[in-house]
Amino acid sequence: MPPRIQFTQLLDYYLSDQGKQHLPAINKYAKMNTAEADDKILHYAMEGIRLNGTFGSYRESQIHDTINDNGREVRIKPGDKVF
């Protein structure tokens, strides 16, 4: 999906009644010039896309883990893509 579509989806979420409660925190982090603030803003962006997006999002595992998927054991190792 083109980045401009994702941006409009996250913007739409944070301007909605459901998401606007987060705007003061986003504004606070936007005024900071730290790696921590950048990380927080990135997480807000990813969450806005996830909550208002029209697609799935893959993540890359950083750890070994085992997930129970409706009775099926799924082993995950670092580097695996997880939906």
Mean pLDDT: 89
Count the helices. How many? 3
Low-pLDDT residue intervals, each spanning 5 or more residues: none
Rg (CA only): 16 Å
Summarize the structure.
The chain is of the alpha+beta class. The protein has three helices and four strands, in the order αααββββ.
List the topology elements.
Layout: H1 3-14, H2 23-30, H3 35-52, E1 59-60, E2 65-69, E3 72-76, E4 81-82
Antiparallel strand pairs: 1-4, 2-3
Description:
The chain contains three helices and four strands, in the order H-H-H-E-E-E-E. With 83 residues, the protein is of the alpha+beta class. It has a two-stranded antiparallel sheet with strand order 1-4. The longest helix is centred in the middle third of the chain and has 18 residues, at 35-52. It is extended and about 45 Å long. The model has no long low-confidence stretch (mean pLDDT 89).
Labels describing this entry:
alpha+beta, 83 residues, two-stranded antiparallel sheet, 3 helices
